[in-house]
Amino acid sequence: MRCPSCRHTDTRVVDSRETDEGAAIRRRRSCASCGRRFTTVEEAQLLVVKRSGVTEPFSRAKVEAGVSRACQGRPVDGDAIAALAQRVEECVRAAGSAEVDSGEVGLAVLPPLRDLDEVAYLRFASVYRSFASVEDFESEIALLRLERAPATPPPRHAPPTTDVAPTHPRRAGQA
Ligand SMILES: [Zn+2]
Q: Angle of helix 60-70 relative to helix 78-94, nearest 10 degrees?
């Protein structure tokens, strides 16, 4: 591994630890020539098989770009999109295979995007599922309505109640 500062090839690992619950290994390296330290991350490569049959490495940036397009003009910030892309990657990697279809990636985008913004979700779904007609939108919207969480959250659980009447301290002079 070359030093990113001076391109020297002799670098030494000074620290190595697992990240992302063991999905990746992060190494601190030190350059033997200039002494600069830098970090490398090693993780299993995940390949995406496109519809054309071509494979390419999974790219979180591509997921973000696709979701950003669907979110244009919507009140969704970049942090939320980055977090969504991370969830998608975790979801796709959790399946445990080294290759996934691009369709599976799209499928993994849909549930978190629906939670994030329903309009962006419909836009994304219309492209991903190739909606061909207004009816496709209508049936998807009908599904959304059905599955939508209630507008107001259910009341918080009241503090535990007991059937036993509250006990009162005995009044002086009683009994
Ligand atoms: Zn160096």
A: 130
Return the DSSP state at 34: T
Task: Report CA(13)–ligand 1 centroid distance (Å).
Answer: 13
Mean pLDDT of the chain: 86
The Cα–Cα gap between 12 and 31 comes to 6
Look up the pTM and report it. 0.63
Q: What's the CA-to-centroid distance between 10 and ligand 1, angstroms?
A: 8
Q: What's the CA-to-centroid distance between 16 and ligand 1, angstroms?
A: 19
pLDDT digits (tens, 9 = 90+) for 84-143: 999 999 999 888 888 999 989 999 999 999 999 999 999 999 988 888 889 998 999 988
The Å distance, Cα 31 to ligand 1 centre, comes to: 5
